[in-house]
Amino acid sequence: MTFDAIVLAGGGSTRFGGVDKAMLVLEGVSLLDRVLTATKNAGTTVVVGPQRSTVRPVEWTTEQPPSGGPVAGIAAGLAHGDAPIVVILSCDLPWLTDSDVTTLVQDLTGDGHGLRDTDGREQYLVAAYRREALAEALKSIGDPRDKSVRRFLSPLALTWTNPTRAGDDVDTWSDLDD
Questions:
Q1: Structurally, what CATH architecture does the domain formed by 3-177 represent?
Q2: Residue 123 is inside which H or E element, if any?
Q3: What is the pTM assigned to this prediction?
Q4: Cis before 65? omega within 30
Q5: Where are the transmembrane segments (predicted)?
């Protein structure tokens, strides 16, 4: 099944002391490159954030105005590609694989299908969505700047996996030690 990928990589990384989290290296590979490797089968991959050197060619965009948060990033990324399914990922998913992304796309029912992290939390930024559903949700929310991801996606019919390490993101230095 054809899909596009939006990778959100424009945050301030405040819990990392301003270090560019996307470029943190784990076992010789940046967190961003790990996510880009996991999305290698996407028709179009767009990274929302400042341009960086990456493991493979991608499209780049930023939300307007900059620093508008993840919903604004999703809105900017949705302007790229045309596949009926869009996989939305944060850039800080070191354990995500291409197999996990394939499963998200193949198991999609309703409006979206996402991963739960090992603690059972639903990870809205590790999920496959129907492009039409995202577009409708964006229309409904109005200006996407500084909007809550949960509120933005709350009207959608979503399903979730069982808890998995692939859904664990990296928010603090200690998350890398797990």
A1: Alpha-Beta Complex (3.90)
A2: strand 122-130
A3: 0.94
A4: yes
A5: none
